[in-house]
Amino acid sequence: MEAKKPLVGGQAVIEGVMMKGPGRLATAVREPSGNIVVREESSRSLGERYPMLKKPMLRGVVILGESLVQGMKALSFSAQAAGEEGEELSNREIVLTMLFALGLAVLLFVIVPTYAAKYIHSAVTDPRLLNLFEGILRLVIFLLYIGAISRMKDIQRVFEYHGAEHKSIHAYEAGVPLTVEEVQKFSTLHPRCGTNFLLIVMVVSIILFAFLGWPDLWLRIATRVVLLPLVAGIAYEIIRFAGSSKAAWVHYVILPGLWLQKLTTRQPDDAQVEVAIRALLAVLPEQEPLAEKETVSA
């Protein structure tokens, strides 16, 4: 039997792609000169150091936290390499940026829908219906947010690299040669995409929060924030299963997430696919172990 390929994931960054494989992390960026610069580094997950963190439900929270940190560092590097920033962000600046982003997400997707739900409290008294309304409102805000940023020119450029990332991972999983011509044949949509994950988070939160009753505003907000790791853990297990299962019914379950990816991905050009391939090649397990370094090619 053919050995199962190790999972490889990625993220679009400014004029480039970040890829993560077993023990490896690489960010490839197209510089203004046209060269591709690739930063490669070793990456050891907390789950490898502490096996308990690899257990179901826990591993999703750990991987999500690590991905946020690694993604922010990759974005900072890509902005500098693409000529949009003078220097990379320091660790302190990355932490502050992440805290601000998380605070904004809590405001937009937790506080706003929870507060708004009180306006139908006089007409609806069933806690489950109130929680359902809040969850649907949260989902609507999320979809409107995705739709709004997808219209921004700079974001559309990033979404093209997002499409290139998905195409290259599809090609790797299919076992075809990692050439621009072969990679371009694949879809820009992928079941293990972060867009799918966020949509599943929204749906899981609707189901889970429906059984929490309807306490006062601040307790509602607190319980939703506290339970976010649980929601993320459940969503991760769902998307992990969906990414590996060949069952026909799984396709229909993840279909809404694939539809949503039509907003968060765009068809990349050959130059963008070339960048994604360079990032992917740098993290494949066939490569030799390496320390952090940067390489440049024309």
Secondary-structure-based class equals alpha+beta
How many β strands by DSSP?
Answer: 5
Tell me about the biggest sheet?
5 strands, antiparallel
Q: Order of strands side by side in the largest beta sheet?
A: 1-2-3-4-5
Note the beta-strand portion. Answer: 5-15%
Distance between the termini: 39 Å
What is the domain total for the residues?
A: 1
User: Which regions contain 5 or more consecutive residues with pLDDT less than 50?
Assistant: 288-293
Give, in order, the helices and strands: EEEEHHHHHHHHHHHE
Describe the structure.
- The protein has helices spanning 46-49, 58-81, 91-116, 127-149, 153-174, 180-183, 194-209, 217-226, 228-244, 248-264, 270-281, and strands at 9-13, 16-21, 24-30, 36-42, 293-297.
- It is globular.
- By secondary structure, the chain is α+β, with helices and mostly antiparallel strands.
- It has one domain.
Give a topology summary.
Elements: E1 9-13, E2 16-21, E3 24-30, E4 36-42, H1 46-49, H2 58-81, H3 91-116, H4 127-149, H5 153-174, H6 180-183, H7 194-209, H8 217-226, H9 228-244, H10 248-264, H11 270-281, E5 293-297
Antiparallel strand pairs: 1-2, 2-3, 3-4, 4-5
Helix pairs in contact: 2-9, 3-4, 3-8, 4-7, 5-11, 7-9, 7-10
Q: Would you kindly provide a brief summary of this structure?
A:
The chain is of the alpha+beta class. About 60% of the residues lie in helices and about 10% in strands. It has one domain (about 10-295).
